[in-house]
Design a protein that fits this description.
The protein is mainly beta. The protein folds into two domains: 458 residues, 8 Propeller (Methanol Dehydrogenase, Chain A); 72 residues, Cytochrome c-like domain (Cytochrome Bc1 Complex, Chain D, domain 2), CATH 1.10.760. Helix content is 6%, strand content 32%. The protein contains five helices and 37 strands. A hairpin with a 5-residue loop joins strand 29 and strand 30. Helix 1 crosses helix 5 and helix 4 packs across helix 5.
Length: 617
Amino acid sequence: MTSSLFRPGAALILSSTGILGLAAGATEMDPHPDKPTPLPPASEWRTYNGSYEGQRFSALDQINVNTVADLREVCRIHVGELGPFQAGPILAENTLFLTTPHSTIAMNPANCDILWKSLFIREGAEPWTANRGLAYWKGRLFRGTADARLVAYDAASGKELWKTVVGDGAVGELVDSAPVAWNGLVFAGLSGGDFGIKGRMFAFSADTGKPVWQFNLIPQAGESGSETWAGRSYERGGGGTWTSYALDPETGEIFIPVANPAPSFDRTSRQGANLYSGSLVVLYALSGKLKWYFQVRQSDDHDYGVTSPPMLYSLKDGRKVVALGSKDGHVYVIDRKTHDLIYKTPVVKIKNFLTAPTAAGIEICPGVLGGIEWNSPALDRSNDALIVGADDWCSELKSAPQEYTPGTLFTRGKASMLGDPAGTITSLDANTGKIRWQYKAPSGVVAAITPTAGGLVFAGDLSGNFYAIRSSNGEILKRIPTGGALAGGIVTYTVADKQYVAVATGNVSRATFGEVGIPTLVIYSLPADVRNPASASRSGDAGLGEQSYSRMCSSCHGPAGEGGAGPKLQGIATRMSYDQTIVLIKTPASARMPTMYPSVLSEKDVDNIATYIRTWK
């Protein structure tokens, strides 16, 4: 239902359990105006990771290494519900959309005015009340629920359009991943692998919510892969998917991360590879048929798994690859054509990586709350690097007998965390996996990572720190205490040519350590009087640029930039700065465009082409 009390400008926030906080504009002391500020044109962030490829890179550069010292809080708002706050905001139709476990909120992206809020009443059991976010498609929003439903809302009004039952919360199933919407379909899967569920992935009609296809992430009797499970252990094999997904619109592939098998800490009853747990599964998005898979870890008994969204990009040599983050503490990069592992790089301490738990106990690093959790590696296109956050925290694991009971955690063991929590933010060479720099955070890093063309990486930790980091060398340029643990999205966008950063803070859950706070969305920007210091003057020769463009670019983008196989380039000077144009040419946003710098295009060639295409109206 849509709460009538949640009109724009309302001072009280209604949650499913009552009134929890005050809506806030510029500060928590200032009331909202009686009427919301009109919504001016804004850039967009339409998916959990900003694009179907999941790169999270922003071409915005108003907030940059020269101006970030002046970054200030614009507004903050308590989201009205205590509990896990791990969602990533999205921005579409000039509106910022955000979820909590039981509500969906639309707000003005420049001042935190609430436009509408929809609450839903649970219909079934809720094994865990986490939610990672939502998807947008042609005026509709889609989100999962903790009682294993998928819900569609009208983006303009918050009216519920349809609700579909996906699974059964009574056996531990829920939909906490951020769905992906494409080509009239909504893609979402079930999580809850630690309860011994049968992991499944689905596609639904965006118009009606009716199921289109289902793929069993744990193969069942008679399906290929079921032979990798001893006996009938596949019937309670886990393998949930609890974050979000990547999609290649050109090939029609959807990339699905699959978490650990069950029981979590014992493999003796399920001897074998245990497909497709601990894997990347690639399906044809329109049919749900398996195209290929890559299993990171067979028969896992450490509660590891592929738990963050895959990320698609291209290497300098043109190879299309997919990057994965895993709870096992490694970043994996895989060739999409050959399915070969190109490299894997640990970003936290590794100990007893393959040692089986014992009744006496063993220490494992990373631990069950360690490694790369639900946010993926991001592509720092300015430095041809991957940036990833991780928890650097160890566990003691002990094996213990346990019978399976539906709806109860099925672990056959116990885990306890060891020592003090810590985290890392790591930059890797995107082509080789070599660590470029690493920042050791005072607590875990599970929040989203967002690199920008302004030479910055936005990140956060569970001690409540929001960071702006120099992407070239890892220098902390700005640290802002937010008052709550950061465990969700960090997104950046523009409204009326002004850049903002929205940060989800105040996570309260079992994975929280250090600062807790109240679940809150905080928006930052630069003061009006701050001007972007002029960057070093750069320009090229438009005549030479025309020659290079004609040879290298016109077949896809058109002889005059009118578009074709590639997007339209006419008017690019009105949409991005000169430096942003340079970044776009050097490190294309889409995996469909080959990377030609520096192998084909020199630095001067790039300058010349940028100068030429910016002459078009």
